[in-house]
Amino acid sequence: MARGRTAPRLVDVAERAGVSLATASRALSGREGVSPAVAERVQAVAAELGYVVNAHARSLAGGSASIVGLIVHQIDDPYFSEIAAGVISVAYEHGITVQICHSARDPENELRQIRTLVANNVRAIIVAGSGYVGDEVETAAKRELAAFQDTGGRVAVIGRHALRADAVLPDNEDAGAALAEHLVGLGHRQIAIASGTVNLTTVVDRLAGIERALADHGIDIDDLPLVEAEFTRDGGAYAAERILAEHPGSTAIIALNDAMAIGALATLRAHGVAVPSQMSVVGFDDVTVAADLAPSLTTVRLPMAEMGADALMMALKDPSSRPRRRHTGHELMVRDSSGPVRA
Amino acid sequence: MARGRTAPRLVDVAERAGVSLATASRALSGREGVSPAVAERVQAVAAELGYVVNAHARSLAGGSASIVGLIVHQIDDPYFSEIAAGVISVAYEHGITVQICHSARDPENELRQIRTLVANNVRAIIVAGSGYVGDEVETAAKRELAAFQDTGGRVAVIGRHALRADAVLPDNEDAGAALAEHLVGLGHRQIAIASGTVNLTTVVDRLAGIERALADHGIDIDDLPLVEAEFTRDGGAYAAERILAEHPGSTAIIALNDAMAIGALATLRAHGVAVPSQMSVVGFDDVTVAADLAPSLTTVRLPMAEMGADALMMALKDPSSRPRRRHTGHELMVRDSSGPVRA
DNA sequence: TTGAAAGCGCTAACAA
DNA sequence: TTGTTAGCGCTTTCAA
Questions:
Q1: What is the DSSP letter of B221?
Q2: Where's the HTH lacI-type domain (chains A, B) (predicted)?
């Protein structure tokens, strides 16, 4: 599979423009030290030839890499695909390409992905998945990312990650509080929680917010049923099954993300439980489809695309002495899936 | 931003294992000509050091590239994110990483993305977006991809692309026929079509299937209202608005993908039009959420993840003398959004 | 079976 | 302002 000449190379451009390799390189990467006339000529030739820099060669030669790595738990989860869209659009504006890796919510896997990205000398690594709480492997990943940063690599994380890196922090705790507040305001007390696995910081933070808001109303979260399941649609469906079976008195379900809420709604529909009259359901994230469900889903909007875009923009900026932290807002989207508790 | 030593290099492994660079290289890429004992030792050392090959160096040195490019229209469209998940999982098994590019349904943009991938000497390019019908720029993209293949690059497309490359062909035409057949069987005659832009081969093929099935029943598709709009949720919402306003007699809407169907359902709900009793709605693709909508969406399932996986597997195989073509099946998923026409 | 050495295409000193 | 040249980390002849 020996690949021959496919794309034109810098030498081709240089020759044709009658300049040296160095000059051509400078002209094309817009560095100074080239006369405008020459620069323009080189660029014209490059365009004419359809020249695109070979990222491998550039990276290997120590130039600024034009690839960023994006690590998501699962790309076909709308939460992540919306983040990815944000990352990709910013990357595009900067002439950067995006390598996507699945961690599949497996810290071991995530470590391997990080190693690959580091070995490939990417410009930056965006970790979009939730952090893990107190996990050995996470520590290995952390060490790897820290080393990457020490040698000039840039890292930005989305979510709480116990990592000295720029971070976009989704407003998980306040979002949880807003949602709990909303349900309590509607008169709910028998609230069940469809939770993702509690080794995810996202889950922990959302629960913390819920706990705080409930405590303000004299409700102890530990008295409420909590079913821990996969942080996915099917996990939500399963959690709702168990809630119906084991805690039939519940009047509301807080699902810790929209995927789980969608699963819960499916289960409730299958059981003929009317939403919201018999059971309110709320989620987190406001994925695109949430507003189009029937009943439309009450949830807390997190600006996913913006989060992805911001994460990459941070990572592309010069590093600051201390990590930047950008908090997202959240917006309670009250829709049709939540209503007053039945008299 | 001069990056120092981050990841261990092959020399590090070689030194530590007490062998030459060449031997280490051979041992790690599993080529022959290395004694089993030595190979094992080298691999052990590599694992111990957490060594991962530098893809840039490998690619530049003429080794088989470990990156594939994936071009989608829009990653936060479930159709594409499910395809991407399939591609990524196969890539992972093969130790390959995936670069994702948005073409944003802009042929010009797509061309630029292809050029970048070619310049980066990727192992293969998977074009997941629909082809375009008779477009100048498409021709440029075609030329670029053909040249890439001529020099050993591998290309696989998903959809009809007028390109001499391995292809996964979604069963668009038969799917369209199945859906039209389904509606006619329910007694519908006043069928309106919410169509994506007709420069997409996907749209053209789905329409062809619909036309064929309708013709079998003596219905001329040209007599039916067709609203052309963006191939997205919002496009579907817009198309439904126009259908309601301009063709109030319609009893069914065929949306040419699920995203458009979801938009159409939203519009109908907003106008208080009951589905399916007043209006049936059907879509294409069977994105994950289709079954969880209320009413659940009647649609035609295309195995997106499998399509992505197959496309990459084809691209990774040795090229055959003639392009392979793998047809997907389709499966009519009759759900709650379609019903008999009201008496 | 192993090793030495020549590049892959580019950037970044260093020279002119 | 421009050109020359030494690598970046790897694979792959070619020799031993």
A1: G
A2: 8-62
Q: Are B144 and B165 in contact (CB under 8 A)?
A: no
| Neighbouring-strand partners of residue A98 | A68, B100
Cβ atoms of residues A263 and A213 within 8 Å: no
Asked if the C-beta of A291 comes within 8 angstroms of chain B's C-beta atoms, the answer is yes
B291: which chain A residues are within 8 Å (Cβ-Cβ)? 266
Contact B254, B316 (CB under 8 A): no
Spatial separation of the C-alpha atoms in residues B127 and B129, rounded to whole Å: 6
Judge whether A143 is closer than 8 Å to chain B, CB to CB. Answer: no
Q: How many residues does chain B have?
A: 343
Residue B176 backbone class (left: φ over 0; alpha: ψ -120 to 50; beta: rest) = alpha
How many Cα atoms are found within 13 Å in the side-chain-facing hemisphere of B142? 14
Measured from the CB, is A35 under 7 Å from any atom of strand C? Answer: no
The pLDDT assigned to A53 comes to: 87
Q: Give A193 to chain B, closest Cα distance, Å.
A: 20
Look up residue B272 and give its DSSP letter: T
Q: What is the pLDDT of residue B3?
A: 41
Partners of A119 on chain B (C-beta within 8 Å) are 6-7, 51-55
Q: Could you tell me if A268 lies within 8 Å of chain B, comparing CB atoms?
A: no
* Domains of chain B with CATH codes: 10-53 (1.10.260.40), 66-170+305-329 (3.40.50.2300), 172-302 (3.40.50.2300)
User: Residue B268 is encoded by which pair of tokens?
Assistant: 């109908």
Q: Which residues, in sequence order, are bridge partners of residue B156?
A: B126, B166
For the entire predicted model, the pTM comes to 0.92
Q: What is the pLDDT of residue A1?
A: 34
- Rounded CA separation B181/A102 (Å): 40
pLDDT > 90: percent of chain A: 62
